[in-house]
Design a protein that fits this description.
- This protein has 9 helices and 2 strands, in the order αααααααββαα.
- By secondary structure, it is mainly alpha-helical.
- The protein has one domain.
- A two-stranded antiparallel ribbon has the order 1-2.
């Protein structure tokens, strides 16, 4: 597999769309739904980072990858702890506590009657925590060519190729508008992508 197109890229692709969904929903005051997607994005970004540690040369099979990731379930703090062996950022106590809380809230947004031990969910101030975590994750993931949704849609063109703009179709233009909703929440959103 080419270094420009790693196999874990498909998971990063889905993480980017979850984060874009967070921006659209949050900017339209659908806060619970927005934070559900932020949790999904964080989980997928953490899984990508974990895969890059587990199999940096991509020599293992997808079945081995699936088995490895299944061991973490949907517990963000477990993923963070695994990643902290190589990236100490993920062992910070405040971050670990937030990852536990985000995991619990993820379930509570999808199912009624989920017992909450760590709080009543997210607050508006958690948006900053989400942003800083996504920024750290996207920068720790060894992205060589940021031709993933967040990068392409925010820049408006492919990484290192300003002449290769994204398609001009209605769906693509609306998707770019959705990604740009993130700029309403995070003025420094461009810190998430490779320019």
């Amino acid at each position: 597999m080419s270094k420009n197109h790693p196999r874990w890229g498909s998971l990063l692709y889905h993480a980017d769309y979850d984060f874009i969904s967070f921006g659209v929903l949050f900017s339209n005051f659908l806060i619970v739904e927005a934070f559900y997607h932020s949790t999904q994005a964080i989980e997928k970004y953490l899984k990508v980072l974990a895969l890059t540690i587990y199999d940096p040369d991509e020599k293992r099979t997808e079945d081995e990858w699936k088995k490895f990731l299944k061991g973490f379930g949907h517990y963000l703090e477990r993923l963070g702890k695994y990643c902290s062996n190589q990236y100490p950022f993920y062992k910070q106590k405040d971050l670990t506590n937030n990852l536990k809380r985000f995991s619990e809230f993820d379930q509570a947004t999808r199912y009624p009657w989920v017992e909450r031990n760590l709080g009543n969910g997210f607050s508006g101030s958690d948006a900053g925590i989400v942003f800083e975590l996504v920024k750290q994750l996207r920068n720790d993931i060894p992205i060589q060519t940021d031709d993933y949704p967040l990068g392409i849609l925010l820049r408006g063109y492919h990484h290192h190729d300003i002449q290769r703009k994204f398609l001009k179709g209605l769906i693509t233009l609306n998707t770019r508008k959705a990604a740009l909703k993130l700029t309403e929440i995070f003025p420094n959103v461009y810190d998430l992508i490779r320019k």
